[in-house]
Amino acid sequence: MKILMRPLLIGAALLFASPVAAGDTPAPAGAELYVISPADGATLKSPVRVVFGLRGMGVAPAGVEKENTGHHHLLVDAPLPQGEALNEAIAKDAQHLHFGGGQTEAMVELKPGKHTLQLLLGDHNHIPHKAPVASDVVSITVE
């Protein structure tokens, strides 16, 4: 899988923030995270343009601690973290894509076949909020 993004200039301090107490960043009541595009059930070609939507909160780069903000993580063919994993930084691998620069969309290369996409908001340290802010799962087919 390959992610195509425009480069963003952010300071090294933002990229390498030291961890703090896990899962302590509150999310405001009613915050909603959703996938604007692609639509659930869509059949498309790779790369897939994924557009992120957020209501009731703002987007801030990783490392920037600001109330009622977070940054996007895209889970590809992976379940949401459960239990104690919600108190830890979201994994960073081929199935857990980080958008710590404050990006609100990405072009993602996916192999042909069926895939699931789900967004999970992380705080300034990539840790899900207390209560986690996650989108519904979107299922797509790549030709």
Give a quick rundown of the structure.
This protein is mostly beta strands and 143 residues long. The protein is 3% helix and 37% strand. The strands form 2 sheets. Strands 3, 5, 6, 7, 9 and 10 form a 6-stranded mixed beta sheet that branches. A 4-stranded antiparallel beta sheet has the order 1-8-4-2, with no helix packed on it.
Q: Can you characterise this structure?
A:
This protein has 143 residues and is mostly beta strands. The chain has one domain: Immunoglobulin-like (Sandwich). It is built from one helix and ten strands; from the N terminus they run E-H-E-E-E-E-E-E-E-E-E. The protein has one helix at 12-15, and strands at 2-4, 32-37, 43-44, 48-55, 58-59, 69-76, 96-99, 105-109, 113-122, 138-142. Strands 3, 5, 6, 7, 9 and 10 form a six-stranded mixed β-sheet that branches. The protein has a four-stranded antiparallel β-sheet with strand order 1-8-4-2, with no helix packed on it. The radius of gyration is 15 Å and the shape is globular. The chain starts with a strand and ends with a strand. Mean pLDDT is 88; it is low at 5-22.
